């Protein structure tokens, strides 16, 4: 696993929630930058779990919490995650099993309208006729998603649904066999020696795979902090607290209780 590399992900500088056609979307407002989330995949995954926990248990401040996550990591990449590998190469796209919409086949531009509600994007034209759109060894659809000219958006309710879905598996572990696997592609890369390059098509796939690795780890690294109950990834099997601060506060309160 040490040789598993990842292509980078894009996040915008700022996002906001807009109502478009009767549906609320998370919309990018300023073009951002590319970064490598795999370097911090376990923190990203536990942040996603804690957001799911909050959305499940609280009704206030949900939109602000979701925007905080998106500003930190970017949008989930739901469009490529639920699409079959033929997106952009045929007039119809296969929609794989997912938690957002029914699976099956749909006209490719009709599918794209769900994620480009502010732009008239012709996926077939942009991919088939504009070969130069390929970015940093990523798939053509990734390049279309993050061109400055277009605004890739995601339905707010779908994003919330994903975080609550992910968190639900920490409540009831018996559900884990029902966890939908992420869509991953890989190749052997030789630019810096031979490495396995895992080309995630979405941030969601990175989170899903990090979660799948954690819950199948015999050391059970996903823990609930003994003090604040926040979920965290334990790098030490003895860890009971998410931070030194929580450990110290727990010990202080415990000491006071004895007097």
Can you give a write-up of this model?
It is a single chain. Helix content is 37%, strand content 20%. By secondary structure, it is α+β, with helices and mostly antiparallel strands. It has one domain (4-216). A three-stranded mixed sheet has the order 1-10-9. A three-stranded antiparallel sheet has the order 3-4-8. It is globular.
Note the gap between the termini: 50 Å
Basic shape? globular
CA-atom Rg in angstroms = 20 Å
The whole-number mean of residue pLDDT values reads 86
**Strand portion, in percent?**
15-25%
Number of helices: 9
The helix-and-strand class reads alpha+beta
The biggest sheet, with number of strands, parallel, antiparallel or mixed sense and barrel status, is: 3 strands, mixed
Instruction: Please provide the ordered H/E string of secondary-structure elements.
Output: EEEEEHHHEEHHHEHEEHEEH
Short descriptors:
259 residues; alpha+beta; three-stranded antiparallel sheet; 9 helices; 37% helix; globular
